[in-house]
């Protein structure tokens, strides 16, 4: 299995010592981040060959050359580092310009250790969370539907700490991969699949990013464990579709029902990411047919569109989640599948399930306070969600689910705000307050 080449500490760097923390981080993530930040903080443009730092697809997205983009970024400098946050294979560096305007340089490493994403944008400010009312105030935005759930779970008893429309099914994007993971774990337990079995990349199973497996050549064989790892930790869409092809659509639908989904019919047929992209942003008649069809008609439709992907990433635009082209789950549904997977991890003697689920915590986590952290994020145009299952040293579990949906993607952004609000809640102590 290829380990994600990130920061093992996943700890928030103190704001007062951010530059020193970045300078002293010698993990693969820290080294790449330090180099990338240096592109904006060093006196001049680099004269080295950039191809050794980026995956080929990154540089291909800059037809004028990345140096031209870099020159535009540097026009707003010189910059100084004021905050550094490394989390597994991702990092965020807050930079202050000469007038005090702050920007965020976000970086994502590929599983090969090269930079897959490097983006500079305005700093996304998340307000402090002191109580549940301040969380609600921050999430209440015109044009955005949202829900939230915070719960404490001890010995199977669930205590709801906060809930806002937590029983309303909402589109969730990639959190559907939690059900795929449950179906895979069940197949491994039944002996029909082994972690060292292999799946094969084919044109019919190739999807769009996120992830990197879509770039593998046809016929590439990848171990199941590595594929599942990428599906959860990197939210790799092609990995997810390979896993669904391995275990079967019916098995995933059974897994959703077994995990306590409040209305499993919302997930039937259980779509692959490939199918959502093709139905949602292919020919307009596909969307219309899907929206009007019953379950049997929808199953016929997904069979009819089987084949290599025709939709490109640039085709994605208008939101389609209101047509049922997404994976709809309530916050309580998300909590139930998280808890079921946590139990799976505790029961798995191989350690594979636990290593996969806890590979990427989403935000900086205090490991002394939360020695176990399970995270999954999800997004599609007009959809954003993040969820965490945190376990304290006594084994008490806490679940946090945040969901957003809108007809206009611009109202939601790229997820930095909602992810940041999740981090604020976790930092605040509201999940396990003083009375605990």
UniProtKB/TrEMBL annotation:
SUPFAM superfamilies given in the database record: beta-lactamase/transpeptidase-like
UniProt domain Beta-lactamase class A catalytic: residue ranges: 164-275
Domain of life the protein comes from: Bacteria
Domain ORF 12 gene product N-terminal: from-to ranges: 25-115
Protein name: Beta-lactamase class A
Organism: Streptomyces clavifer
